[in-house]
Structure formats: C-alpha cells, structure tokens
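lol forgot to send this yesterday, sorry. struct tokens for the thing we talked abt
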C-alpha cells in the first residue's frame, strides 16, 4: 500500500475537475485531494483511480464517482464533531471523506464481504469511523440516533421513514431516490413533523437493496 508523487499529482488534477463541475466547499476539496483513492480499488484499476468515474469493487458493487461523493458531502454541510450516518459503506471511500471533514461516522453495509474487508482496511489508512455496522440500512441506526446528517450511497426506491425520524431538528438527509436513474433529494428537518425537501440533479447509483430475511 503506497501513495506516490504521481498519485498526489493525479489527485490535484481530480480536485480541479470537480471544482470545475461546481464543488466549492474547501474542506471537501481538501479531503478529495488528500485521500489515496487508488488504495480503495482493486489493483487492476490503479490507473483509473483519479478519473472522475465510478468503478467496480467487490461483491458487484461500485466505488462512487468522486464528483458524486463530493456533491453529497457538500450537501451534508458537516461541522467538526457532527454525528453522520452513512448507508452503504462499500469500499469505505465516502466514509474516509466524512472522517476527513471532521464527522463522527457511523456506516452500515449489508454485504458481509465488503463489511469485513472495509472494517480492516480503513484503520490501516488511519481512518477511524465511530462504528461500522453489518446490517440493513433501511432501518437506520435507532440506538445511535439522532444524527446531524444521514447520507445514502445507493439508489433508494423510496425514502425510508426511519431515516427521516432519526434526524436531529436541523439535520439533513441526502438520498438519491429512483429506480434506473435517481434524483438527489435533500431533506432538512425543520420540526418534529416538518421537513423541507429539495430535489436536485440526476445520478446513477447501484440499488439500495431490501433484505429478504
Ligand atoms: N459509499 C460507498 C459506495 C458503495 S455502493 C463507497 O464510497 O465506496 C453502495 C453500497 O450500498 C454497496 O456496498 C451495497 O452493498 C450497499 N447497500 C445496498 N443496499 C444496502 C442496504 N439496504 N443497507 C446497507 N447497505 C446497502
């Protein structure tokens, strides 16, 4: 596992690319500029790690496109120490970005293989999320609620109620909603029962799967 000047140079190019696409949050740009994304991917994809593209990881899943990761993170408006729940740990890249911007991260993954691999991998790189959970993201994490922010990194066919109810007042839920194509939705909790909803751009994610057991 190593990071080189070549990788660092490519990362700075990537930062320029996502800046040109509209990302302005300096903390987010710094995170993308400092996290060695190539180490989150299978070695055969090393040369592609700093293109602004999604790529396959284990268990038929993908590491999200850097722009998408940056866009979702920016929408969360993370402040240092904020409690953030991520649904879909996957490679751990988004989780690392959240750690880097100062969040206390809780992240749920339903594929055991990915859960195990990423749980071992993140600490090796020095990223220490509060808790990684093997489980079903549709339920959220009631034991640790409420959260300042919740981010869903898979395409949800609908907005799971538990995720809305596990937000603090003022908390933000960032969730791509739709089947083949998803619309990024931002919910801001204004009161016990009041939510402000914003429908933003279109994206493509792997599906948020429902558990059958
Ligand atoms: N955030 C990840 C993106 C991974 S892709 C990264 O940065 O690499 C989406 C992930 O969501 C996959 O790993 C998939 O297994 C997981 N997933 C799908 N349905 C889920 C569910 N119901 N609960 C938790 N994780 C789920």
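and heres what i got for the seq, position by position
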């Amino acid at each position: 596992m190593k990071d080189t000047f070549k990788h660092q140079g490519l990362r700075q190019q990537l930062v320029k690319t996502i800046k040109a696409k509209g990302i302005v949050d300096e903390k987010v740009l710094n995170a993308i500029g400092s996290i060695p994304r190539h180490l989150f991917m299978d070695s055969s994809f090393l040369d592609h790690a700093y293109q602004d593209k999604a790529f396959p990881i284990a268990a038929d899943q993908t590491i999200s496109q850097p722009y998408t990761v940056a866009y979702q993170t920016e929408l969360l408006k993370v402040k240092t120490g904020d409690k953030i729940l991520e649904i879909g740990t996957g490679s751990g890249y988004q989780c690392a970005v959240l750690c880097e911007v100062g969040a206390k991260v809780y992240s749920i993954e339903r594929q055991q293989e990915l859960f195990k691999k990423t749980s071992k991998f993140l600490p090796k790189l020095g990223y220490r999320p509060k808790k990684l959970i093997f489980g079903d993201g549709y339920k959220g994490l009631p034991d640790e609620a409420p959260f300042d922010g919740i981010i869903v990194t898979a395409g949800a066919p609908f907005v799971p109620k538990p995720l809305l109810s596990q937000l603090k007042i003022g908390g933000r839920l960032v969730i791509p909603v739709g089947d083949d194509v998803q619309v990024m939705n931002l919910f801001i909790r204004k009161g016990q029962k009041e939510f402000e909803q914003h429908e933003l751009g279109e994206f493509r994610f792997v599906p948020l799967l429902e558990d059958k057991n």
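The first strand starts at residue 55 and ends at 56. anyway ping me if u want another try
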